[in-house]
Design goal:
The chain is an alpha+beta fold and 174 residues long. It has six helices and eight strands, in the order βαββαβαβαββαβα. Helix 3 packs antiparallel against helix 6 (164-173). It is globular.
Length: 174
């Protein structure tokens, strides 16, 4: 099975790592055809192991190797295609579009959090097919009320996000 592991917190807030070294950790754990996309922790690989055991195994290996608490979320090529294809927002020059990957039901938690904020102009949240999508004007990602909610400690092990264009890059490499 072909997967992409989306790591949370890579190359932010002092957690710096080279993607070649991350790929080496994955290879040492028995993953095959390992490669990375961008420097934000998107690792493509193949494995016949069960997804649930892969997550535990790879988080443990990453935590031990890099001395940090690793969180990652696995998605198959089909799941990533679905995220890319279901994007509800039209690409606009002055906006970012993010899709969130995480634990079961995280999309509903994010929607509830989004609905409890005061959005900036044209900021939108939407759930499609178990994925939460967020459109935010460029320059407001961290400054919006919802952007600040994403830093909550209670969410750190439950989700990660990527700009929608990252999913396209991952798919092209898969």
């Amino acid at each position: 099975m072909r997967y992409c592991a989306f790591l949370r917190g890579v190359n932010v807030k002092g957690t710096n790592m080279k993607m070649a070294e991350v790929c080496e950790v994955f290879s040492n754990e028995g993953m095959e055809d390992v490669s990375s996309v961008l420097a934000s922790g998107n690792i493509i690989f193949s494995s016949e192991e069960m997804e649930s055991s892969l997550k535990v195994k790879l988080e443990k290996a990453m935590s031990e190797h890099f001395s940090y608490e690793a969180f990652l979320f696995l998605r198959t090529k089909e799941e990533i295609e679905n995220i890319w294809n279901k994007n509800p927002f039209e690409k606009k020059e002055d906006f970012h579009i993010y899709a969130f990957i995480g634990a079961s039901d995280i999309e509903n938690i994010l929607m509830q959090e989004f609905e409890n904020t005061v959005p900036v102009e044209d900021e939108k949240g939407c759930i499609l097919d178990n994925t939460f999508y967020w459109q935010v004007p460029k320059g407001n990602t961290l400054g919006s009320t919802f952007g600040k909610v994403l830093g909550k400690k209670s969410l750190k092990d439950r989700l990660t996000s990527r700009n929608i264009s990252t999913f396209d890059k991952v798919l092209k490499k898969m």
